[in-house]
Amino acid sequence: MNNKEKGVLSVEATIVLTTLIFFIMLILSFGRVFQAQNYMAHGLLETGKALAFKSYEYEKVKNNVLANTVRQLLSEKKANDGNVRSKWNEKNISMAADTVFHYIVIDSGEYMKYYGIENINFSKSNIDNKDIVLHVTYDVKLPFGFFGHEYITMHQQMRAGLWSR
Question: Reduced to 3 states, what is the DSSP secondary structure of residue 146?
């Protein structure tokens, strides 16, 4: 093997290894996005179920003094529930969903940071006839930026039947 062939081998190895490292980084980045999407999907599902159930309590048991007293005695998070109730009564579904989401997703700050989830937005959430439609938009920070993109914006939606209607 002469020096010319050794040089060609070095160039080929450099190209192949660079491409291989690029694809490994790409796969790791999309694995992170998949984990974040799965985490958010679970949180969104639980938030929708909780709000769909709470709708019955908020709309059907409004003036029942006994039910209100029992709820206050059993409630661990009285301030949080009152905050969600006031947002629900104001028809501010997006803020109610955001509050319930952060209540349900325990230690949300730590997990959000781990998965690179930022800028969670429930602003397109609404009530559609007899359903609650939760639409969340969020950014996932990639561990390795590709072609100037450090974030991927994700959208997820879920629909749950309201118990109250």
Answer: strand
**Residue 151 corresponds to which amino acid?**
Y
Under 8 Å between Cβ of 37 and 154: yes
What pLDDT does 79 receive? 44
| CA dihedral (124, 125, 126, 132) positive or negative | positive
Question: Rounded to whole angstroms, how far apart are CA atoms 128 and 134?
Answer: 10
Q: Give residue for tokens 């998070």.
A: 77
Give per-residue pLDDT as tens, 78-102: 445 667 877 887 888 899 899 888 8
Q: What phi and psi, each to the nearest 5 degrees, are found at residue 84?
A: -65, -45
- Is 109 strand, coil or helix? helix
Q: In 3-state terms, what secondary structure has residue 74?
A: helix
Whether 146 contacts 155, CB under 8 Å: no
**Residue 48 to residue 70: CA distance in whole angstroms:** 24
